[in-house]
Structure formats: structure tokens, C-alpha cells
Design a protein that fits this description.
Residues 1-35 are annotated as: Disordered. The protein is of the alpha+beta class. It is built from five helices and nine strands. The protein has a single domain (26-59, 67-183), classed as At1g16640 B3 domain (Beta Barrel). It has a four-stranded antiparallel sheet with strand order 3-6-5-4. Strand 7 (115-121) and strand 8 (128-133) form a beta hairpin. It starts with a helix and ends in a 6-residue tail after the last strand.
Amino acid sequence: MEESSRNSSSPPKQNSNQLEEIEIPKEHLFEKPLTPSDVGKLNRLVIPKQNAEKYFPLNDSINDSGEKGFLLSFEDELGKLWKFRYSYWNSSQSYVLTKGWSRFVKEKKLDAGDVVLFERHRVDGDRQFIGWRRKNGDAVAAAAATTVAPPGGGGGWGQVHPFPSAGVPYQTDFLHAGCVFFFNTYLSH
């Protein structure tokens, strides 16, 4: 009886606690295998020249101290925002990420041979993503799932991302900021 009373044209009722996955349209920019010096005491990541000039052109961005450079912001696989100082070192003729890089390496527990991935939002080109995978191809979910509370306590996820916290599904290829989760707010009447 219940089956016959259902109108086939009406949408099925949805549970308001059901999670819905939205894919973020991303453009893969490049990957960088990490060298021992990228994860060592130099506290910097060398960006290959062809990738640096194509995706992060410095043009005439000169800061107050007379150096070329600016801050680049990226979202990781958890939606956490990472800011890195990006500049050109005349001494080694290298494009580098400096300030903020060593903290990223420590939090993600990166080692030489691991690969860092750079992506950009297809619609909002100012929105960029950073991901990583282990040198053997295995992504370590425990390292990616660890969140560090900001100094002074409080906040964490809510300060960085407007949506409620939800687990990120394990991805066999690599971890990245490819999905945003939110609670479905569809209300049936």
C-alpha cells in the first residue's frame, strides 16, 4: 500500500545528516619530487624554472626590502590554508618557496623522494592547492589526517574552512584538496 501511494515524479526524501560530495574543478599544474635539500635544513623548496615562470611569474613584484617575491597561498587536502614566501634567489638563480615551507614539511612528515603536487582551481584561478604523495606511491592517511591546533588554542578547522568537519576519503593515487564536504540542507516538506 505504501509503495502505491508514492508519486514517481516526486524526489525521494533525503536524510538531513547525509553528506554530499562536491568536486572542486582543478587544473593539474605540476609535480615536484623532493630532494634531500628540499626537506633539509635549508628550509626551502626549489621550484623548477619552467614551472615557476609558467605558473608563478614574478614579473616586477618587488617587496619593501628590494627583493623580488610575494606570498603564495595554497589549500591542502584538509582545506587548511598554507602561505609560503615565493621569491627568486639571484645567488643560485633559483625560484624558491621559503617562509612556511619547513612547517609544511614537518606537519606532512615529508621525506626526500616524496612528491609535492600543485593544482589550481579551474574557475577561480587565484585559488591554488598543494598535495603530496609518498615516494613509493602510498599515501599515508595518518600524516594527512593530523591537524595542528593554532597557537593559543581554539578554532582549527572552523577558522580555515566554512563547512563542518568531515573525514576525507582515502585516495590511492595521492592526497589532495579535491573534495569539499558539507551537510546536505535539503528539507522535505
